[in-house]
Every structure is written in structure tokens, then in C-alpha cells.
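User: My collaborator sent over this chain with a note saying "see what the structure looks like." That's all I know about it. Can you take a look?
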Amino acid sequence: MKRIFTLILVALVIGKIASYGQVLITQIYEGNVGNNKHIEITNIGTSTVDLASPQYTIKLFSNKAEIGTNSPTKTYNLVGTVTAGQSLLVRHTSATIPAYALTYTPFDSTNTVTSFNGAGTGTPIANTDIIALYQGTTLVDVFAWGTFQYNDKSYYRSPAITAPNATFTQGEWIETTLTAVESAATNTIERLGYHPQPVTTPYLAIASPLTNATLYSTTVPVSFSVLNFTIGTDGHIHYIVDGGSVNEHTSTTPIQVTGLTAGSHTVALSLVDNSHNPLSPAVTASITFNVNLTFTDKTDIAALRACDTSSTVIYRLTGTSTITFQQTYRHQRFIQDTTAAILIDDYPGNFTTAYNQGDAIANIVGKLNIYGNMLQFTPLGDPGTPVSTGNTVTPTVITLTQFNNDFELYEAQLVKIQSVNFKDANGSITFTIGKGYALQTSVDSFRTTFYDANYMNLVVPTNSVNIIGILNARTSGNYITARNLADIEGMNDVPEVNVSNETGIYPNPANDMVTLQNLKGVTKIEIANILGQTVNVYNNIKDGNMNLSLSHLKNGIYFVTLYNNNERIKTMKFTKN
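Assistant: Without extra context I'll predict from the sequence alone. Here is the result:
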């Protein structure tokens, strides 16, 4: 399959920083829809670089491929010249966000080098795709994700970096939100297509909040970055709120601006030495934002759930609730108090505090809406430090009758259904991502909604079990989903089906064709849609790679299941665009 990708040249005005051209990767954008992916390359040197002599190449190592051991999944030869201070932007032709990045005059290529994919933590080779920049046969620079959870995020190179690095160093990269990139002003480092010259003198920049952002709290944390200046050794920060008195800040933690009223506010920062004198030349940064305190308070989740979802009213949940489950997908969290529970769908990533399951939080501001028959609370800001941590929520015991007749009463709650059987369990079918499983005489009551749950690939138990899980709704029905293997009491000893670590699928997302690689031992391949319906079956599989046509499939999410003599060995997800 061929996709069109776009190479964009964006002229930048950058001062002299070296005596020769230096090309490196300066930003990665992994958008919130499959095709919104961009790679930014910049010449931070002082001379023009001919990208074809010797040839500069971007190589994608996907599906856990390892540089030096595996061949690249895709290779893209950069074209033309890049002058001192220019940036290159390689994007998917179907990208729609950010809008400003789509206005540049493109150079087209038929390649899939921006099909980096996946999410998770751990070492680069074990968990993620790798983006590498080569000059000829020499590895020049690399982005390998590290422990970044890069799904729906963007990462830009620190302006303190003065040269490419063939060894991925996570400390050279700064994580930012998609919103920050999409709303970035011209000539700001978050903006795709712009990267400043490397900084060798003291540097100060405000990371959050965003310029002219609307916030919903009387307390606003102001995060910043400092380069070539050590706070506590070289000096500290002075900051002024709304032109008032000078305040000191002596650490790198965010500045907590408190006691704010509704309206516009400005916070100005400056670096000073240990005698409180401004640096020369002055190093400053400032931010202006708005505070909106017009919202309706609700003390508990039951009261919040009773509110009108069709209005544009902003609500504040003032009471304390506990996180019972969270996942990276759409930054979702399920919270519960003594009255009810609700799903927090934080697609933009407005929660900036790193929370854990069991954390209790309060004063969540947001709007209500219904998606797929599920009530959800969309936050408009970050609630801040947890009220407490390490809390345990005891699941409410309900029956299947209550599940079927009183689902709304328990929606989003952590519940326990005792002594149930999986209707179709036969000792060989396994838990597959995004599939419903009938319980007793109910239809598709259990669903594998949480894709990272550690019971995937396990055989569905044939014995009676107790299921602890969260009730969640979709347009296809109402479900209970276990958070992890321990939530399915009675199947802890079920063995996991052997899964090949070498078999992979690319590109992903795909248009007309996907390639399955390393199919040794595979005798049958099944493709199923998001509803679990089989749409294709392939038999008599040969070792090696296999191309599968997708031209007959509708756009959407599909699952490829591999079998060896009717024994399931692996399931992989892909998106058809």
C-alpha cells in the first residue's frame, strides 16, 4: 500500500550557532486521530545542507524493531537543501491538525515513514517504534520514546541541545500537549515548523498555562523551564502577579499563584542572581491568562449525574471522589464517591497532575455530556494535588438482574457480580480486545473495553467466577469490564496462550493494504471488526511476510488473530482509513 506524505519547508530566521550545517530531529507530533502525525527536522548550523549529498534519510523501526538488528520498516529519502535555520516538516497527507501546518507548500512523497504508532512505557526497543535520522549509512539522530507515554502528545527538542545524538537521551526532550502545539504562536518552540537556535546563555520560558488560556480555579500553577542557569546555585526567580510586589521562587517546581479573582491576570518572571540583581542582559518571561469562576457547584457525584447534559453549564464537583481506574486512552478516569460514580473523559489532557488509582481528588470543574450512551464529565482544568492517596473502594455487590434492570443506578461504579459463568466458554476461546462475552443468559454483558488489561490472550474460564469490574455503556449495549486479572476471581491460574513477540503488522493505520511479518508457524488468519464479527479468514499461510488487501473493508478498527492448528497465538489491532 502506498500513502502520500508531505515534506514541508518552513523558513526560519535563526542566528549563527556553529561553523557548519547540523541537521537533527527537533519535534515529534503524535496526534489524537490516527493520521495526524508529524516529524520536524531542523538545520541548526550556519551553512546550507544538501540533503541528497550524502543522502539524509528518515527510517522507521516499528513493532519493536531494533536498530542494528532489524531492518527498518520504512525508509524516506529527504530531498532538496535546507539552509541554516530552516526546518523540515514531514507529515501524513491525511493530517488535518494543526491547521497552520497544512498551509505550507508541500513536496509529495509516497512513503509511510510517519506511521509511528503504539503507546506505553519501558525501554524503547521493548515497547515502541523508533524514528531515526541517517546521513548515508551513519545513524545521526534518533527519537525512541523512552518512558514517554507518547499517545496523543508532542515532544520537542530542548533549545539547549546543540548537536544531534545517535543515542536516544530522554532528557533532551520536553513533553507538551497537543493543545499547546495547535495554539502555539508564531516563532514559539511548540509550533510545528519552528525551532529556535540552540541556547548557550541563561534561558527562561513558561510552559503552562498557555497564553490567553481560560482557567477555572483561584489557584493556578505556573510551570517554567530554565536552561544554562541553576536555581539555588546561580540565583533564583523573581515573579510579579498583576504588577504587584516581587515574590521569590527558589526551586524548579511550578509557582503556585493563589487568591486569584475572575478576570485577566499576568504573571511576569525574571532570573536574578543570589543578590537579587537581574541578570545582564535580562532574562524574563511572562504569561497572561483568564480566570472564569462562573460555575455551578455540586457536592457529590449523584447530584452531578442528575444535572442537565444538554446545557453549556460548567459544573464544579466540590466533594472528594476516588479514582477506581484510569487508562491512557483519552486520558480516561473513573471516579467514585459514596453516592455514585462517573467517567472523566479528559481527551485534551487538562488534568496535568499525575494521579494514581486510589487517589482522592476534589474541585473538578467541567461539563457533562453523553457519548455512546455513557454519561461523562469532561474536565476544563486540573484539580491539583490529591486530597489523599492509597484509598481503597470496596466494590458494590450486585446481581445480574440488577445489572440488567438498574444499570443507570450503577453506571461507572466498581461492582462485583458473584458466581457467574461465561456462556460460550469452551476451554479454547480467549479474551480478545474489544469483544463482548455473554454471561449466563445475558447477551454480551462482559466486554474487554480496557485494552491494556492483563487478561488479554487468556482462555475464558469455563468455571463459575466472581467478576469485579466497572459498568460502562456503548451504543451496542451495557457492559461490565474487569480492570485486571485479579478482578476475575477464580481464573488466576488460567495459563496464557503463547504469544509471538516477532510477528508484526504495518503500516498502522493503513489505507488499502497491510503487511503481516514473521508468520512462521501461523496456519490461519482471521480479521474481525470492532464488534467481534469475522470479516475475513485466510488459510494455508506460508512462513515469512504476507500482504492483506483492505480495499473491501470500511474505515474503522479491526483485529487480526493468528492461529496455529486452531490454537490462537496472537491478536493485533489496526486502523483502516
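A starting point for your reply to your collaborator: The chain has a mean pLDDT of 85.
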